[in-house]
UniProtKB/TrEMBL annotation:
<comment type="similarity">
    <text>Belongs to the glycosyl hydrolase 28 family.</text>
</comment>
<keyword id="KW-0134">Cell wall</keyword>
<keyword id="KW-0378">Hydrolase</keyword>
<dbReference type="InterPro" id="IPR011050">
    <property type="entry name" value="Pectin_lyase_fold/virulence"/>
</dbReference>
<dbReference type="GO" id="GO:0005975">
    <property type="term" value="P:carbohydrate metabolic process"/>
</dbReference>
<dbReference type="InterPro" id="IPR000743">
    <property type="entry name" value="Glyco_hydro_28"/>
</dbReference>
<keyword id="KW-0732">Signal</keyword>
<keyword id="KW-0326">Glycosidase</keyword>
<dbReference type="Pfam" id="PF00295">
    <property type="entry name" value="Glyco_hydro_28"/>
</dbReference>
<protein>
    <recommendedName>
        <fullName>Exopolygalacturonase</fullName>
        <ecNumber>3.2.1.67</ecNumber>
    </recommendedName>
</protein>
<dbReference type="InterPro" id="IPR012334">
    <property type="entry name" value="Pectin_lyas_fold"/>
</dbReference>
<dbReference type="GO" id="GO:0071555">
    <property type="term" value="P:cell wall organization"/>
</dbReference>
<keyword id="KW-0964">Secreted</keyword>
<dbReference type="GO" id="GO:0004650">
    <property type="term" value="F:polygalacturonase activity"/>
</dbReference>
<keyword id="KW-0325">Glycoprotein</keyword>
<feature type="active site">
    <location>
        <position position="219"/>
    </location>
</feature>
<keyword id="KW-1015">Disulfide bond</keyword>
Length: 373
């Protein structure tokens, strides 16, 4: 038995949207973490305002967080050390329910200057998994994060299923799900509409499965940016299947810095059965990414891109460039395959086109204007 209640209302939390529920949630976590067996923390119906929640392990128990109410992140940035809800060093975690983790980002988005400066002060991410093994997140909604909605770091065996992630399309840096240095991450049946990447896959990501995801608004499903920092690890074995992208600025994108500081490999990718609906740039590999002019334009890439398959990708593009393969002069992309890619520019005054530089591979079942390799 736990040392005390696991229902935060029994611990004194008030679901009035005004009272601070931070101490009650931390107490429920401690009670559950110190117990053994399977322990269930309950967030009952109501609106519970909190500041930073550092939920640390290791725990003796397996923990379920049942989210029936809504958690609201305070707009007072002094209430956070780093992130909002940060779960660290925990094995066997489940978060489920029909409630919402609402970052109330609109209170502080005007304090985000990361669009203009790469040395900006980063606002708190909403939900962070650090060094977590065997986690399931099901059914909940993540909304209006101050920065990223869900950030998965150095974790293994993570399932995100039937989750909704939503923020306005113009909200800054509100990535839906970001991951890095993590292995065996599955995202299925999830709907994401945000102001940045719906899903972003960072260095060190391995065995990633994305299936049945609907994305839009947002910047698409992105890998990278890679090569910005020293000692970045490879990204490999990524499969994206049965997804739909609606009105996004990018579709399926791999991007790395032009004068990369490290040499991670990008390899063993399959994008299959993906529908594009009015997507600005549906397929992109960009080894010359250089935002805010922070890199040397003539710099040589060290990020090798190999064995990337685009298969059964169809729909409409909002610009003439349906396919952009902008690979490095010194390190061409190798083993790129385009199978049955049928994307049409949805305006009548221009033809669909593909722009390919330094890409080596094969095209099957494409119209002449798209078969650029």
């Amino acid at each position: 038995m736990p040392a005390g209640p696991l229902d935060i209302a029994q611990l004194g939390a008030k679901g009035d949207g005004k009272s601070d529920s931070t101490p009650m949630i931390l107490k429920a976590w401690k009670n559950a973490c110190d117990a053994t067996g399977v322990q269930k923390i309950v967030i009952p119906p109501g609106n519970y305002l909190t500041g930073g929640l550092e939920l640390k392990g290791p725990c003796k128990s397996s923990i379920i967080i049942r989210l029936d109410g809504n958690l609201l992140g305070t707009g007072d940035l002094n209430a956070y050390k780093r992130n909002w809800i940060e779960i660290e060093n925990v094995d066997n975690l489940s978060i489920n329910g029909h409630g919402t983790i609402d970052g109330q980002g609109s209170l502080v988005w005007n304090k985000n200057d990361c669009q203009h400066s790469y040395n900006c002060k980063v606002l708190p991410n909403s939900l962070v998994l650090d060094f977590v093994t065997n986690a399931q997140i099901r059914g909940i909604t993540l909304a209006n994060s101050k920065f990223f909605h869900l950030n998965i770091f150095a974790s293994k065996n993570v399932l995100i299923d039937k989750v909704t992630v939503k923020a306005p399309g113009n909200s800054p840096n509100t990535d839906g799900i970001h991951m890095g240095d993590s292995e065996n991450v599955t995202i299925s049946g999830t709907t994401i509409g945000v102001g940045d990447d719906c899903i972003s896959i960072g260095p060190g990501s391995k065995t990633i499965r994305i299936d049945g995801v609907k994305c839009g608004p947002g910047h698409g499903i992105s890998v990278g940016s890679l090569g910005r920092y020293k000692d970045e690890k490879d990204v490999e074995d990524v499969k994206v299947k049965g997804c739909t992208l609606v009105g996004t600025t990018n579709g399926l994108r791999i991007k790395s810095y032009e004068d990369s500081k490290s040499s991670p490999k990008v390899t063993k990718f399959v994008y299959e059965d993906v529908t594009m609906d009015n997507v600005s740039y549906p397929i992109i590999i960009d080894q010359k990414y250089c935002p805010n002019n922070i890199c040397v334009r003539s710099g040589a890439s060290k990020v090798a891109v190999t064995d990337v398959v685009f298969k059964n990708i169809h729909g409409t593009s909002n610009t003439p460039e349906a396919i952009t393969l902008n690979c490095a002069d010194n390190l061409p992309c190798q083993g790129v395959q385009l199978h049955n890619v049928d994307i049409k520019y949805n305006k009548s005054n221009n033809k669909t086109m593909a722009v390919c530089k330094n890409a080596v591979g094969k095209s099957f079942g494409l119209s002449k204007e798209l078969a650029c390799i």
